[in-house]
Amino acid sequence: FHVDKKDVLVEENHSGSVSLPSLMTPSSAACMSLSMEMPRKRKGSLDNQDTKSSSIPDADMEDDQNREPHSQIEKRRRDKMNNLIDELSAMIPTCNPMSRKLDKLTVLRMAVQHLKSLKGSASSFSEANYKPSFLPNEELKHLVLKAADGFLFVVGCDRGKIVFVSESITKILNYSRAELIGQSLFDYIHPKDMGKVKEQLSASELYPRERLIDAKTGLQVQADLPVGAERLCSGARRSFFCRMKYNKISIKVEEKEFQASTSKKKESQRYCTVHCTGYMRSWPTSHLEVDGDGEPDKQDSSYYSCLVAVGRIHSHSTPQVNGEVRVKPIEFITRFAMDGKFTFVDQRATTILGYLPQELLGTSCYEYFHQDDLPHLADRHRKVLRSKDKIETDCYKFRTKFGSFVTLQSQWFSFVNPWTKEVEYIVSTNTVISQTSRSEVKSELSSNSKTSEDDCNKSLQVILGISTTPGAMIYAGSIGTQIANELLDFNRMNSSSSSGSISPFSLPQDKCPQTHNQISNNVPNGGATDMEIPGKSSSEDEPQGAAFSGGESLMVENSQLDLDSVVGPGLSSLSNDEAAMAVIMSLLETDTNLGEAVDFEEMHWSS
Amino acid sequence: MTANKEKRRVISRDAARRRRQVESEVFVDLSRLLPFQQSVQDHLDKPSVIRLTLSYIRMHTLLKGKTGIKVEASHAVKCGQVMESGQEWRGCDRGRDDEEKKTDNVEASEETNMFLRILEGFLMVLSTEGDMIYLSDNVSKYMGLTQTELMGHNIFEYTHPCDHEEIRNNLRLTAEEVWCGAKRDFIMRIKGALTHRGRSSNLKSATWKVLHCQGRAKVCVAPSSVSCLLLTCQPLPLSHTLLSTHTFTSQHSMDMRFTYCDQRMTLLLGYSTEELLGRSIYDLCHILDTNCLTKNHLNLCFKSQSVSGQYRMLVRGGGYVWVESHSAVIPSVRPSKSRPGAHQPLCILCVTYVLSGVEEPSLQLSLDQAVHRYLR
């Protein structure tokens, strides 16, 4: 049990506080005897250290401290104090107009005066009965609710009656407290979420065991909670999302935030997603004023159980640092596997290309490209697999379902798995440049048919850089496969470069891989046998260097996701192996909050 | 001659002593004015007194200073100028006597305490330079260090160096962002001096604690322009979440390929466990959400915990659902099924909440929905 020592102190001072002895274990009783509120006068603490180092302090640092001459420590202490005094004088209005720098004592005296003047205006600030809080309680409350964008609410478990809701709900859902108190919560929940909310509110008789996660193993466990009619899993935690109605006459700004969760259908009611977290609580009905309609059936049970929870609007649908992919109306997005086969097609494609997504899925994009565009698109395909930049294609023609062509221009980038650094797929943002008219189509089609098979084959051969026996058909789709295989072979041969050595077969990015291609076709395992990679079958153990030659750093500044801005520049200078170790070490050092005990303290509620 | 020197020395020593005494007295005066219990005041060292005084003045400026028009308007609404039938806004001090004020005070305090306790987090007010101007007093529960020890210090002294860049980015506020109360949502690692059983230890044995910080910008204009971030900071517990029918758990290798998922996944999304093993989560999601997933993955790789935003998971057979995942990196329990023989020390545990019903059920967007198994 973790007893919150702070609360123990506070609640003892409150009038009408709850008795806590029942929760106290012998160890916490011992804690009680110490005065816990005091900050320890920190020896070797940060006030006395000048260091801005934020690595975990360890014994070594202290040893260094002691070896320093005392005068150095003193000087640092003085400097720190002088800085503080300077900051203080900047904050005090009476100090500011002074042209010359004031001495320490004067600044301090003026600070005393200033504080006295500030405190004079605050009325109920320094009540003797209460533990003084740093901020006036009202102010703190507003700050908390503003920061959290949330509201407190208490609903009865049986019917979902809203017993209490904080005023902040007006700013969030745009309903007044009066409108809500006494109403049923279910009137404000999206119809499809009612079942979910009912389940969350329900007593444990229907769900005799709770599904929890065991922090150590990550597996689900059944927790046996004492099921008694009175207690009703008091203290059990609830966490769920549900869609709540909000009053339509809301500020325009907020509508943008609800974008992700608004129903696509044109409903008269608008909903926003609220994350509710809280605890089940039961109180003897004698303690509560259950206001509103007297419920005759309620009087039988001696306990009234409620959910006491906080609701927060969830409006983060885009990460802070990188904006969402901006999509304009004449754009659609597709996803290819490395070999150019469609694996995802945005529904907008249908109006532009005529195909339903499922008609395209699994087929190679090369089957739709106009023949004249194949060379440059193949070239871009190769480029994008080897680069972290966004690659622009030229305008090209894409065959629609009706046989006509649309002119598109696309931006491709290869999406790389952050852990393995391998390419997962290629994302293509496609913009329509123009739609070819029907009349042009006919001449196109006839000109296409004139091209002989041989010509077609020849141009494809040039693209692929291979020579095949004459007469063998090469399908457009095989272009993509071939390009993908090039990369896989390239990677396989170069994976040893993760330790820094450069493979004799590694090529600079933009060089035409035709010669390389021949090698890879003739010798399946890629080049000389001494390039055999020992035991590196799994890419999970550590992030591998992808298609880059050994000298390049692990994290190249890339346009699709600016890693430096997200996670800091720390790892750029490390080699792959070092980076992997650094990540694993840092993860093992972190306390992932999984071992925290649940706080089952009773909460006092005064209605 | 030496006698004179001696005398002068004694005089100067006494003078110095007197100066120090006077200074100490002023420090005591100052500490008495700080809103803490006397026992706390007595034990503050001199730099702490100044640090806390600075915090007090800065918070006062922030809260009482003249604010902008938008904020004033809402403040007017708050102060009961727009009265709702029968409900008075309790925040307004006008025309209330001391007793009422006291009750309001207590109620406000209780409400805040309850709010923070349920939220399982603490409040942090950060200046644009990263000074932790204010921390709610329950910070000791999460960091093991008390409010008085921490307030006024700079956040960069307490957070992981690799997270500094991200924190700096979040502290940067444009004028527009400030006026609109721009939102912030990020994850950072902070020093936690708590033992496993929740007792305070000291900084020397501190570990990194992962905090999810959410909040918005706040500004006040006069007397001097002060803008800051109001943040609630929460650790991200996974251990005691009650799972409902609309959540499922899954485990992944570090590259986000599935190594396990529970049966609810099948009920909610239609994929069987076997189908998913070895499959990357990136294949399963809507393409527009790639950024969201990547950010989540990176947070996991570097900070070990993450809360994704809302993203879309494709449902087998067509359509998608909006979901949100809370994930953490944990020591691996089971060997990776997708790559037998390769055992890694870590894996990712995700708790995913399904937020919506199936949208556009007839729409097949991805190959995975159409084909039984997509073989790479």
Features:
heterodimer; A: 607 residues; alpha+beta; 6-stranded antiparallel sheet; 19 helices; disordered N terminus; disordered C terminus; B: 376 residues; 5-stranded antiparallel sheet; 10 strands; 38% helix
| Class by alpha and beta content of chain A | alpha+beta
Q: pLDDT below 50 for ≥5 consecutive residues: which ranges of chain A? A: 1-62, 123-130, 205-209, 225-233, 250-257, 260-267, 290-300, 316-325, 437-452, 466-473, 496-575, 593-607
Helicity of chain A, in percent? 25-40%
Helix content class of chain B: 25-40%
Pfam families (chain A): HLH, PAS, PAS_11
Subcellular location (chain A): Nucleus
GO molecular function, one term (chain A): DNA-binding transcription factor activity
InterPro entries (chain A): bHLH_dom, Circadian_TF, HLH_DNA-bd_sf, Nuc_translocat, PAC, PAS, PAS-like_dom_sf, PAS_fold
Explain the overall architecture.
- The complex is a heterodimer of chains A (about 600) and B (about 375).
- In chain A, strand 3 and strand 4 form a beta hairpin.
- In chain A, strands 8, 9, 10, 11, 12 and 13 form a six-stranded antiparallel β-sheet that branches. A five-stranded antiparallel β-sheet of chain A has the order 2-1-7-6-5. Chain A has a two-stranded antiparallel ribbon with strand order 3-4.
- The longest helix of chain A is centred in the N-terminal third of the chain and has 22 residues, at about 70-90.
- Helix content of chain A is about 30%, strand content about 15%.
- With about 600 residues, chain A is an alpha+beta fold.
- Chain A is built from 19 helices and 14 strands.
- Helix content of chain B is about 40%, strand content about 25%.
- By secondary structure, chain B is α+β, with helices and mostly antiparallel strands.
- Chain B has a five-stranded antiparallel β-sheet, with helices on both faces.
- The model of chain B is unreliable at about 65-95 and about 370-375 (pLDDT under 50).
- In chain B, a hairpin with a 5-residue loop joins strand 4 (about 205-220) and strand 5.
- Chain B has 13 helices and ten strands.
- The interface between A and B is large, with 186 and 192 residues.
